[in-house]
Amino acid sequence: MGSNDHYVEEAPAHRVKVDDFLMDTLPVTNRRFSAFVAATGYTTAAELPPNPEHYPGALPEMMYPGSLVFIQPRIPATRADWGQWWKFVRGANWRRPYGLDSDINDFGDHPVVHITWSDAAAFAEWAGKDLPTEAEWERAARGGIDSAIYAWGNDLTPSGRHMANTWQGEFPHENLREDGYARTSPAGAFPGNPFGLYDMIGNVWEWTNDWYAERHESDASKTCCIPSNPRGGERERSFDPGEPVIRIPRKVLKGGSHLCAPNYCRRYRPAARYPQPIDTSTSHVGFRCVKRHQQTAEG
Questions:
Q1: What is the per-residue pLDDT for 246?
Q2: Distance (Å, rounded) from C-alpha 75 to C-alpha 249?
Q3: 286 beta partners
Q4: Which domain holds residue 31?
Q5: CATH number of the domain to which 160 belongs
Q6: Section 175-199 average pLDDT
Q7: Cα 70–166–181 angle (5° rounding)?
Q8: Is residue 244 assigned to a domain?
Q9: Where are the beta strands (DSSP E) in the chain?
Q10: What's residue 297's pLDDT?
């Protein structure tokens, strides 16, 4: 698990054990999430106005329902300033992924997006499942190829073939779409890994159940035992008026998305990880579920 050769938060590479589990073969799609909403009447966080108590100092006129949407700049941008391509769009949510003028009518097979961690956890509970731990997710994504950089080997595009929905061209202003997609792609559009799991890399980031820590634990394989079923991190404090900066607790995202590019965010690898505030939804974050204890998972 992890890597010593890429981003610092992936280190150190270390051995862990995970018990048997079963994972959905695909990320949760708009069609599946629609069935959940129809059965329960659930309302996602992006469809509700933010709670002013959670965002002291925020302008009242900005407290409207919405979500973060990637909007491609027309000219080269300073990659250190993500505000040049991420915009909080009024009315953007899972039903309207790019704002009020969009819908999912033709995208039932695409991964659902604009989902916070709580939204994903609510779906998992309804489905009789759970969100994966980071260790479970990484084990599944590797597909048994534990030493490879990518989920399919050591070449990003073996023999010129695109193995996942990622970004081609200079991010964020040039999208060559060599893989055939400008944004999300239908779940399962790219080859599955040796475990028969699809879209573990690219398309949309996926929530896990683990709190984020800046680095992995020290390499336990060099001590007396290999940890079993590890859980990373601890919940951070939030909404503390005494703190100069309010930090929303963060969970680990895995897998990268269609916005990951060789020149920016090379996180289209099983070892890659990213901290996501639990209250934040975007147009490139989704999820999938697991079942444990020999229960049968829906494909």
A1: 62
A2: 34
A3: 206
A4: 1-38+105-234+251-299
A5: 3.90.1580.10
A6: 98
A7: 75
A8: no
A9: 21-23, 66-70, 86-90, 205-211, 250-254, 274-277, 285-286, 290-292
A10: 44
Assess whether pLDDT exceeds 60 at residue 242. no
For residue 38, the tally of other CB atoms under 10 A from its CB is 9
Sheet with strand 285-286: strands edge to edge? 274-277, 250-254, 205-211, 285-286
DSSP tag of 25: S
Confirm whether 259 is domain-assigned.
yes
pLDDT above 50 for 278: yes
Is the pTM higher than 0.85? The answer reads yes
Please tell me the distance from the alpha carbon of residue 97 to that of residue 283, in angstroms, as a whole number. Answer: 6
Residue 127 is given by DSSP the state T
47 assigned to some structural domain: no
> Do the domain assignments include residue 52?
no
- Residue appearing with tokens 């040796």: 194
Total tally of structural domains belonging to the chain: 1
How many residues are there in the chain?
A: 299
> Does 206 have pLDDT greater than 90?
yes
Which amino acid appears at position 83 of this protein?
G
Residue 227 corresponds to which tokens in the numbers above? 């940890």
Q: Which residues, 6+ apart, have CB-to-CB distance to 79 below 8 Å? A: 171, 172, 263, 264
CA 93 from centre of chain? 16
Q: Would you call the peptide bond into 172 cis, given omega within 30 degrees of 0 as the criterion?
A: yes
Which of the residue ranges 12-21, 55-64, 191-200, 270-279 would you say has the lowest mean pLDDT?
A: 55-64
Q: Residue 240: what pLDDT?
A: 56
Measure Cα distances from 152 to 19, 146, 267, 288 in Å.
Answer: 23, 10, 14, 20
Q: What is the mean pLDDT of residues 70-99?
A: 94
What is the distance between the alpha carbons of residues 77 and 97, in angstroms, rounded to a whole number? 23
For residues 292 and 209, is the Cβ–Cβ distance under 8 A?
no
